[in-house]
Amino acid sequence: xxxxxxxxxxxxxxxxxxxxxxxxxxxxxxxxxxxxxxxxxxxxxxxxxxxxxxxxxxxxxxxxxxxxxxxxxxxxxxxxxx
Length: 82
Fold this sequence. Notes:
Layout: H1 6-20, H2 28-36, H3 45-51, H4 53-68, H5 71-81
Helix pairs in contact: 1-4
């Protein structure tokens, strides 16, 4: 009714959800990495948080591209249905 494709909406939701795994306050991926790193290395949660900034930026660019050009998000699923 609003002109949204269900596949596009699901992909956009998943991309936004991926961002939530790397940004506070939830940041599940950051806490997972903090638990996996060797304590003797002295890597802090702040170090990991600064390290995910480029990845968050890339995801944000991807979301903006998919909002601007919805065909990017629906092209591959469209080829698989045929």
